[in-house]
Amino acid sequence: MNFRLLLILGALSAFGPLAVDMYLPSFPSLAAAFATDIEHVQLSLAVYFAGLALGQLFYGPLADRIGRRLPLLAGVALFTLASLGCALAPSLEWLIAARFVQALGGCAGMVVTRAVVRDLCDPIASAKVFSQMMLVMGLAPILAPLMGGLLLKTGGWQWIFLALSLFSALCGLAVALWLPETMPAEQPRAPLRGALGRYRRLFGDGIFLGHALTGGLVMGGMFAYISGSPFLFIELYGVPAEHYGWLFGLNALGFVLVSQLNARLLHWRGPDFWLRRVIWIYLGAALATLGLALHQPAQLWPLALPLFGGIACLGAILPNTTACAMAGQGQNAGVASALLGSLQFCIAAGSSALVGVLHDGSAAPMGEAIGLCALAAFAVAWLTRRLELRQGRL
């Protein structure tokens, strides 16, 4: 896969983290602007996750029926317009509604990019490409909070959504000029009326479902951190809003470095092998985060260390679970990608909302959500491996 195509796919996959991470430093400003509290502002985050989960289910069948390009261009256009709507929001209710529409547009890039990679690559090559895309995607969590803090300081929270609109418009132009149709011409075009049946068959595929849920649960832990980190860093530990991005970006840097290490390790063993080993490290880091969050140390750094370790592990877990889930799904690449992403963001929406519901002015709710997701992910990964052994796939 050439560098330009990889860059375009990475940028499209970055819609999700950009639309989340860039506006995180503005939570206190949004609460002040709309005369509410941060817990209510967090609803705009949970609604965004819900929109990502729902929208992907529609783009998957479309991508298998009419190809990859048209659904992608339509989604990017919708994201651009919704971002402008967020910038013009006169109330929190308006912002929440616009964020939902924004998510419906943004999830097109997430679904179609996975299908494009599946069109062009075998399972091991897919895992390498997904890891390489993490380098592009990983820049979003590093740069987005920094950019968000700068835009917030110089122009206000509205500038954040204007920047998102500009970014998505440029991505749409890149797709129109340089992303060809990758769906094989000889591949049968699946009828839309059969989409529910194909989703039902995927739910009956225990190995696909196991890898999808493992990735979804670790992503749930990540978004519990994303949802809880503005309160944890800015309000609980007094980190200035404009410096929040540096801490957030440090964790994202760990994610990027491990994803690149994972791409190199795949030269020796397959994605399933490394997944089974890294998830042990992730479980240990998540449980350490839980213990420290319940204790709530006087300084931030003891809690920041296991958070860094846990987020870094996702750089190996997410591309490997994606590659394992998508293996053997060639004719159903669109719906498989859609269901994979939908499950991930359903769990992310639930974990993000859980942090808000449990909010008690301490670090405990975030730590509890991360620990719960890690334990569940480990259990599902273990059951999936047993099923693979039983079916002779290992």
Walk me through what this model shows.
This protein is an all-alpha fold and 394 residues long. Helix content is 82%, strand content 0%. The two termini are 27 Å apart. The mean pLDDT is 84.
Brief write-up:
With 394 residues, the protein is mainly α.
Which structural traits does this protein have?
394 residues; mainly alpha; Growth Hormone, Chain: A; globular
Characterize the main sheet: none
Provide the gyration radius in Å: 20 Å
How far from one another are the termini? Answer: 27 Å
Summed up, the helix count is 15
| Topology as a string of helices (H) and strands (E) | HHHHHHHHHHHHHHH
Number of strands: 0
- Summing up helix and strand content along with how strands pair, one would put the structural category as mainly alpha
Q: Which helices and strands appear, and what pairs or packs with what?
A:
Layout: H1 3-13, H2 15-21, H3 27-33, H4 38-66, H5 69-87, H6 92-120, H7 123-155, H8 157-178, H9 195-203, H10 206-236, H11 241-265, H12 271-295, H13 301-326, H14 333-357, H15 364-390
